[in-house]
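User: Teach me something about this protein's shape.
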Amino acid sequence: MDAAIAQTDLPREYLEDTEQWVSGAYMRTLVEALARVAADVDETPDDDHEVWDVWHDSGREAFESSQLGPLYGVLKTLGTPAAVYSQVPSFAMRMNRTLDIRSEIVAPGRAHVSAGPRGPDDWMSTATVKNFKGLLEGIPTVWGLPLADVQMTWDGEVASYEARHAEPIGLVRQSGAMALLGGLVAGGIAWGLDGPVVAVSLAGAFALMAADGWRRLAGYRRRDVAEAQRLEDAIARADQRFEELWNEREALRRADLTSRKLSGYLPPALVDGILADPELELTLGGRRTDAAVLFADIVGFTPRCEGTEPEQIVEDLNLWFAHSDRVFAKYGGILDKRMGDGLMVVFVQRDGEEVLAMQDRSIACGLDLLRSVEACNAELAERARLPIQLRVGVAGGQLVQGNMGSDQRLEYTVIGDVVNLAARLESASSPGHLLTQLTLVDSAERTNPGHYRRIEERTITVKGKLEEIPVALLLPS
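Assistant: First, the predicted structure itself:
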């Protein structure tokens, strides 16, 4: 099984989760892979290969009482195999929406069934054709009858089945035999007895028995038809309700999946805000707030990409992002965007939090981000990849946060001098260091001493600003 699953290029968890069974192409790939593995061949086996008997036999066995469970009694209540053959399209297409199945009772004990793809993208595989043949053969066994004799033709697209089957010997045949016997006696067989009176008496008796049999038969048949109709109506109502529940479940599942996907793209705090006040968060505009912004960038990323396969670069980046995202979550940083190998993270005040405490979180997060590089490089070394170096810049102050863009395309982000300053600080930082405003460092030393080492202090000139800005270069302690 593992060898077959490996050929589908999808994990085993996909197959084990039935909610993922939405791809006909995947199931076909899996079935053909299973057949190749079972037959120990490189190409998909021919239609007449014995490996397909597994699907044929499983179709027959599907009508055993142990397999049908409660449905066994339901089928038996339908009265005869012919009733089930006539309902094959209804039963089958409730479970399979990719096949067009039709049936016709052409004579007593004979049924014609056809199956083919419903749409241009649907298909009939050898496994499906063989399995369906086994199913049609197994229907009479519900009543303890022999397997049906099913002759099949398949042109590679539509399969046709001619099923010949026995019917259970029950009330219908017994009453019919009684009527026949009565008719024969009344027609002259009894005249061989002594005396016309005896003959007339016997003939009359058999005739009365026959008439009584037909009356009983008619009564039973009417009751059978009524019961069968009520049963079919009940099944139809249950099936309709099941379909409604299924559609509701799928709608809820899609909504949950959409929510989880959006939660992966949007910061959790933003998602919570949208849920609390959808109208506010879906309108253009922003609001002024105190915040801190962190920029981080891998040193020498462009030369690193030269001569390296793009897939390997993506794999290395995703490894690094897995480490960095855990750090942001730890300190409540909102990942605003990824820019190639760069990151922009925003820190806003939590409920009841002071501005200085929020700024301290941003510094602590940047330092922890530098520490996480060591663990990431250890994993890169195991893959024989080059290590990375990180450069970090952090700035704090007032900015505007909100929805930017247009009615057609919104982006929740922040703008302001603080964002530009954080980007400039990151560019001016040294590899493996964090560069930030000196005012933020003085605050952090008061609230969280010993968390870092101050390497140097200096002033820098930032494009667009006349005054130089005092900054400090930090290392994790």
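Now, about its shape. Residues 171-218 have pLDDT under 50 and may be disordered. The first helix runs from residue 2 to 6. If you'd like, I can walk through any region in more detail.
User: That's plenty for now, thanks!
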